[in-house]
Amino acid sequence: MNFTYTSNPSRVIFGSGTLTKLPSELSRQNLKAPLILCTPHQVAQASLVAALLPAVAGTFTEATMHTPTHITQKALAYAQSVESDCIVSIGGGSTIGLGKALSVRTGQPHICIPTTYAGSEMTPILGETEDGRKTTRSDPKILPGTVIYDIDLTMTLPAGLSATSGVNAIAHAVEALYSSTANPITTLLALEGIKSLAQSLPTIVNDPTNKEARSRALYGAWLCASCLGTVGMALHHKLCHTLGGSFNLPHAETHTIVLPHALAYNSKALSQETLAKLADALPDSEGDPVKGLNVLLNTLGVKRALTEFGMKEEDVDKAAEIATSNPYYNPRQIRKDEIREVIRRAVVGEEAR
Ligand code: NAD
Questions:
Q1: Ligand 1 midpoint to CA 294 (Å)
Q2: Could you tell me what percent of the chain has a pLDDT over 90?
Q3: The predicted structure's pLDDT at residue 242
Q4: How do residues 245-275 score in pLDDT, each as one tens digit?
Q5: How many whole angstroms from 117 Cα to the centroid of ligand 1?
Q6: Which domains does the chain have, with CATH numbers?
Q7: pLDDT-derived band of residue 132, with 50, 70 and 90 as boundaries?
Q8: 251 Cα–ligand 1 center, Å
Q9: For ligand 1, atom 4, which residue shows the shortest CA distance?
Q10: CA of 61 to the centre of ligand 1 (A)
């Protein structure tokens, strides 16, 4: 066995009620003036954080999808005016994105408290939008130093967003299995992550208050996020980035719709061993991971067509053009006509095959 595995240095505190560990975590790092970040929807959770601490520099409540640089500039000016010495982001990928943007600009430590399953907290990747254009960069300095996963904070994540955010996490792990930098360690993490989420998400959709299922889902999301932070991705992430950026589609929902189609395309180039392991991690797959994903999405009752989010069938050609214009790694050769068909199916909501 020959492989290279690079682990990302981050400290993870996981469990129920772990938010209460934040004060000792700040003391451990000798930090005294945290700037708390959240979206307008999560001001109540940000207040919970502030209430736990002996002192806060301030709270910035305008975190926004796609990390627009004008919001980052506003938050940066606020951070300077209140003389913060660290950043505490509580929320999903949008809030964590703002935390990363501030941390990399100021050099201040970033403590993340994720409340969705998107996984940004475990990656050194930052996507930012300026004048409607999204650019992505990777830098070890972007990786948050401490992540506090508190199951209790995920209990309010609505059933629908729990489902799509969970499938977003599964997508990181699926692509880790056939990454150009795949290795036995990320494969272990990926399969355990997929299994945990595929088992727990249907329970959460039926009963969002089921704490055991919430715990399994957050644990799975962490493992899948580690994969995203460690190995390179392929067609699925490329398609979602292209479609999301060019047609202004919602992040988790787009990942959910595209994943079975991207896997169906790539499965023709994957080994029987990889397909069998993935199928084993997905309930009711009967040995076929594409079927396993179709079953999971149907059980979760999620939307299957990008037209439900405003994309039109006429957009398919443009999307195929953009998705195939730059070369990138994929286990199966990128063929424009077949990628067009993958996109068309996702747009109109056909079952993946
Ligand atoms: P999000 O952060 O935009 O959250 C969606 C909505 O759900 C927000 O209004 C938020 O306030 C609310 N919410 C979050 N947690 C909640 C909770 N527990 N209870 C109630 N409401 C809650 O969505 P997301 O899917 O987590 O993140 C998407 C963004 O993250 C995208 O911009 C994506 O590009 C980015 N992302 C980046 C990386 C990376 O590695 N850089 C990885 C994954 C996602």
A1: 24
A2: 94
A3: 87
A4: 889 899 999 999 999 999 999 999 999 999 9
A5: 8
A6: 11-154 (3.40.50.1970), 159-348 (1.20.1090.10)
A7: confident
A8: 8
A9: 92
A10: 14
From 67, 141, 251, 259, mutation site for ligand 1 pocket: most ligand atoms within 8 A of C-beta: 251
Distance (Å) from CA 137 to ligand 1 centroid = 18
Mean pLDDT score, 136-146: 96
**pLDDT at site 246:** 87
Pocket of ligand 1 (CB under 6 A): 39, 41-42, 65-66, 91-95, 97, 115-116, 118-120, 123, 125-127, 153-154, 156-157, 161, 165, 251-252
- Beta partners for residue 57, in sequence order: none
Alpha carbons within 13 angstroms on the beta-carbon side of residue 172 total 30
User: Which residue minimizes the CA distance to atom 34 of ligand 1?
Assistant: 66
ipTM: 0.99
How many A from CA of 92 to the centre of ligand 1? Answer: 3
pLDDT in tens, 311-345: 999 999 999 999 999 899 999 999 999 999 999 99
For the CA of 155, the nearest atom of ligand 1: 18
Q: How far is the CA of 158 from the centre of ligand 1 (A)?
A: 12
